[in-house]
Structures are given as structure tokens and as C-alpha cells.
């Protein structure tokens, strides 16, 4: 089946199925707030939510360039799971026990998002089926086993390793030689979550201004074309779009990720696949894939595509390259050969924020009142919630309303990293990196050796990932 009839862009399939929300008013002119939050994705909205819940009289303003959920929060793969970018580096920098505390906080975050969604009546199609990662080559299997032991060492004793036959009892992925399953994950509908969250935050009394791009953030000021919001605390929650802010071109690299979604699959087709547990599904390739079985029985599957646009440019309302759509469709059919004639309804892309050392961070600079959270790489659905609760605690601590908490002492707080290289080195570096990963994946697919291809190891080292 070709992809000629596939809708490309339009933000994401999640919005095509849900509709974009009615717009909120832009900032009408200069104003003041106790806390000004720049960016209306999960990070900004969760931060507004927890701050307002903790201190109901706080005057909080969220400034959003387009509409709440326009970014990755309305486009992602819907894996609400306990992974956090940089944990292993934090273990090296701060010790194993500190990283275990970070991991435990992430484990609890999955339940926290589900709890609040229930409490606030946000129906985000959440299904708590865990995370299933499959291996399809001997090298992937060796990495999967390593991953399995590392996660157990970080306290995930409820993780299960499965062989080929046992994996097939759960899901029939072509060529799967094993899998690892953890209960610490859930499938969700990203746009339903972010829309529900924006409504919940507004109902609490937070002011949301949409169509309001912030051009510059400076201490106690968020500057927009319509006026400036002055606030003792200004929080940057712009993730993959951060490079568009004055002075931040090289702070976090906007990395693309693209997705496709199939038409709803027939019962007969599902019988060939299984996947009754509706786990989120991933693999251990270097250019990894991620997928979910949606509430309306489609397969949504994503991967890297063209990883990065020159000069830190971002996509045009989610449009992705036709070659990426074809590549993702091929991947789908490799995984599930019975989908060869299945229609691909929609394709889209979005940007993630990638710091130079691939470590997520949350920071409040006490001397300026400027804060930020992000750099989640591909794991921000749950992490944004942990970041938000941490920003709440950091602000409460700074304003003398509370002391340090368990969250403010986690090792990702106040982590500093150098900026990315200028162009053309940034573009060349990222493209070379992903070309190396794709070559390594191809070589591993035809090799019987259970070892990671040296090209991928070298790429990891050069990229600063390990
Ligand atoms: C295709 C894709 C798939 C993904 N899949 C997963 C997954 O399955 N699981 C997972 O854990 N993570 C996933 N991620 C990552 C995850 O979605 C993000 O880490 C998370 O949504 C980040 O939330 P955020 O609020 O920090 O950023 P965003 O959601 O990107 O929000 C930033 C907001 O800031 C606004 N903004 C930007 N610049 C300005 C400005 N100057 N002024 C005002 N507003 C501005 C934007 O319009 C946007 O709404 C995926 C990401 C993508 C792109």
C-alpha cells in the first residue's frame, strides 16, 4: 500500500482526531505576575498546575507562542514511562545511590500522572500496560540483556526478560529474538492529556495567553511583541524550540522525531499480531523505534527520520519528509508483515530538546529568578511532570515558603553543560552520527555476532552520550 493518501503534518494525528482547541486570547499588553511561564507544553502546564495547587493565591501567567500542546506534548508517541535522559551519567557524577533516587522519583511519576489525570477528569486514553522492548538481532539481544541488568541494578526488580517464544505469546514482532518488559509505563493520547491539563490549569485560575511568542527572556522579564510580562520568576519551558529565543541558539539542539499512524486494524489483523496488553513497544536498535496500539486500534509508530535541520530550524506545523514516511512504513511492515496492505492515515514530526551531554535538567537560578526544565531528549512525557514538581519546590524554597525537599536534592537539579558547536559543525556532527547509527543497525542485522557494532560505539563516544 502506498502512502500517497497519507495526511502529512497538520500538527499531528492526535489533533486530527481530536480537533485543535479554540484559541485563547494573546497577551493584551504589559502586565505583571508572580511567576511567568514561557511555553504551554507538559513542562509549562504541569509547573503552573503544581504551583497553583501549592499556593492558590499565586498570580501565574503562561505565554504560549502558538497554542497549548502545539509542540512535542501534542505530537509524541504517548509513552508515559519511567526513562530519564542522563541517568547513567548522573550516576557517574553523583554516585549510584543519587541516580537510584532519581530513578525511583521517575517510577513514581508514572503513577502521579495517572493519578492527576483521574483526579482532574482528564480522559487521555491511558492504559497501564507497561513497556515492552524487543530485540531483533543478536547484537540487539545482547544490549537488551545489558539494559535489563542495568535497570535491575537501579531497583527495577519487577522487570521481566522473555525469550523468543514467550515474547510471541504477547506480541508477534517478525524476527524478535527476545524482549524485556517493565510495568513502569502506560500508553496515552498525548493531545488529550495536554488539552485536559490546559483546561485544568485555567480552571484553577492560571492565566493562559496563546499566539504570544516570547522573543527574549531576561531576569524578571518575558518580552513579547505585544508587551512585557514582569515577574520575579520567569521559567523557560520551550524544549525543542529553545533555539528560537534570543541568546539560546546553541543551548539545546532541536532533534526531529517523526511518526506515522495506520488506519484502524481489523480484528483479523490483530489476531496475527496479538498485542492485547497494549504495552508501549520499542526496540534496541541504535536508531530506535517506538510504537503504541491506540485506543481506536491503530498502530502509531515513530523513529528518527532526518534527525536535524540546518541552523536549528524546526518543522512547519509537523510536516515531515516523504522519505521518512516511507522509511517508517517499511519499518512497520518489517515488524508486522501482515500490515503490508494497511493504509497509513497520517504522518507528522516534532522536535525534542537535546543538550550537549544528552542529560535532562531542571534549574532555578536563585540570583536571577530565571528557571528552566527540559533537555529530555526522547523521554519527556513523564519527566516533564517530575520537572514541574521540582520547579514548584525550588520556587517555594527560594521564596522562603519551604525548605529543601527530596525533589530539590535529586542529581539532575542545577546541572550545567556546555553549548552545542556552531554551524556547520552542529549539522555535520548530527548527520554523521545518525548515518553511523543507521549503518551500525544494518551491519548488526546481517551479523550473527552478539556485539554492538564498533561504529555505533564510536558514535556514542563522539556524541558525548556515554
Ligand atoms: C514525535 C515525538 C515523539 C515523542 N515520543 C515520546 C514518547 O513516546 N514518550 C516520551 O516520554 N517522550 C516523547 N517525546 C518527547 C516529549 O514529547 C517531550 O519531551 C515533551 O512533550 C516536552 O514537553 P515540553 O512542554 O517541555 O515541550 P513542548 O511540548 O515542545 O512545549 C514547548 C511549548 O513552548 C512553546 N514555545 C516555544 N517557543 C516559544 C516562545 N518563544 N514563546 C512562547 N512559547 C514558545 C511551543 O509552541 C510549545 O507549545 C516525543 C517527542 C516527539 C517530537
UniProtKB/TrEMBL annotation:
<protein>
    <submittedName>
        <fullName>NAD(P)/FAD-dependent oxidoreductase</fullName>
        <ecNumber>1.-.-.-</ecNumber>
    </submittedName>
</protein>
<dbReference type="GO" id="GO:0016491">
    <property type="term" value="F:oxidoreductase activity"/>
</dbReference>
<dbReference type="InterPro" id="IPR006076">
    <property type="entry name" value="FAD-dep_OxRdtase"/>
</dbReference>
<dbReference type="Pfam" id="PF01266">
    <property type="entry name" value="DAO"/>
</dbReference>
<feature type="domain" description="FAD dependent oxidoreductase">
    <location>
        <begin position="34"/>
        <end position="394"/>
    </location>
</feature>
<dbReference type="InterPro" id="IPR036188">
    <property type="entry name" value="FAD/NAD-bd_sf"/>
</dbReference>
<keyword id="KW-0560">Oxidoreductase</keyword>
<feature type="region of interest" description="Disordered">
    <location>
        <begin position="441"/>
        <end position="466"/>
    </location>
</feature>
Amino acid at each position: 500500500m502506498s502512502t500517497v493518501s497519507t495526511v502529512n503534518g497538520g500538527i499531528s494525528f492526535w489533533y486530527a482526531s481530536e480537533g485543535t482547541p479554540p484559541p485563547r486570547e494573546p497577551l493584551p499588553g504589559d502586565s505583571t505576575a508572580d511567576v511567568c511561564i514561557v511555553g504551554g507544553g507538559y513542562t509549562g502546564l504541569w509547573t503552573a498546575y503544581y504551583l497553583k495547587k501549592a499556593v492558590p493565591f499565586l498570580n501565574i501567567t503562561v505565554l504560549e507562542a502558538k497554542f497549548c500542546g502545539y509542540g512535542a506534548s501534542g505530537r509524541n508517541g504517548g509513552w508515559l514511562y519511567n526513562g530519564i535522559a542522563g541517568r547513567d551519567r548522573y550516576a557517574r557524577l553523583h554516585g549510584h545511590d543519587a541516580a537510584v533516587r532519581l530513578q525511583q522519583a521517575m517510577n513514581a511519576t508514572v503513577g502521579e500522572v495517572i493519578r492527576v489525570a483521574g483526579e482532574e477528569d482528564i480522559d487521555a486514553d491511558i492504559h497501564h500496560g507497561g513497556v515492552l522492548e524487543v530485540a531483533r538481532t543478536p547484537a540487539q539481544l545482547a544490549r537488551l540483556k545489558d539494559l535489563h541488568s542495568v535497570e535491575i541494578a537501579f531497583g527495577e526488580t519487577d522487570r521481566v526478560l522473555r525469550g523468543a517464544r514467550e515474547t510471541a505469546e504477547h506480541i508477534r514482532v517478525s524476527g524478535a529474538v527476545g524482549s524485556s518488559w517493565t510495568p513502569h509505563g502506560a500508553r496515552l493520547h498525548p493531545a488529550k492529556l495536554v488539552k485536559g491539563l490546559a483546561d485544568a490549569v485555567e480552571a484553577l485560575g492560571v492565566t493562559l495567553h496563546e499566539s504570544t511568542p516570547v522573543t527574549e527572556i531576561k531576569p524578571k522579564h518575558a518580552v513579547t511583541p505585544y508587551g512585557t510580562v514582569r515577574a520575579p520568576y520567569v521559567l523557560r519551558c520551550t524544549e525543542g524550540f529553545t533555539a528560537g529565543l534570543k541568546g539560546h541558539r546553541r543551548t539545546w539542539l532541536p532533534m526531529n522525531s517523526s511518526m506515522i499512524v495506520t488506519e484502524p486494524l481489523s480484528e483479523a489483523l490483530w489476531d496475527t499480531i496479538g498485542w492485547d496488553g497494549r504495552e508501549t513497544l520499542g526496540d534496541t536498535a541504535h536508531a530506535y523505534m517506538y510504537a503504541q496500539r491506540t485506543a481506536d486500534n491503530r498502530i502509531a509508530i515513530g523513529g528518527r527520520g532526518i534527525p536535524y535541520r540546518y541552523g536549528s530550524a524546526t518543522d512547519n506545523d509537523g510536516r515531515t519528509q516523504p522519505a521518512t514516511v516511507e522509511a517508517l512504513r517499511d519499518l512497520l511492515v518489517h515488524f508486522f508483515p501482515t500490515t503490508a496492505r494497511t493504509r497509513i492515515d497520517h504522518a507528522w514530526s516534532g522536535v525534542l530538546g537535546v543538550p550537549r551531554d544528552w542529560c535532562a535538567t531542571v534549574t532555578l537560578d536563585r540570583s536571577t529568578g530565571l528557571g528552566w526544565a527540559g533537555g529530555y531528549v526522547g523521554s519527556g512525557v513523564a519527566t516533564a511532570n517530575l520537572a514541574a514538581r521540582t520547579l514548584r519546590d525550588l520556587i517555594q524554597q527560594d521564596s522562603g515558603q519551604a525548605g529543601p525537599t527530596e525533589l530539590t536534592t535529586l542529581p539532575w537539579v542545577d546541572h550545567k553543560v556546555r553549548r552545542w558547536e556552531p554551524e556547520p559543525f552542529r549539522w555535520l556532527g548530527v548527520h554523521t552520527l545518525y548515518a553511523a547509527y543507521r549503518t551500525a543497525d544494518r551491519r548488526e542485522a546481517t551479523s550473527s555476532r552478539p556485539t554492538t557494532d564498533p561504529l555505533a560505539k564510536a558514535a556514542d563516544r563522539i556524541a558525548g552520550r556515554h
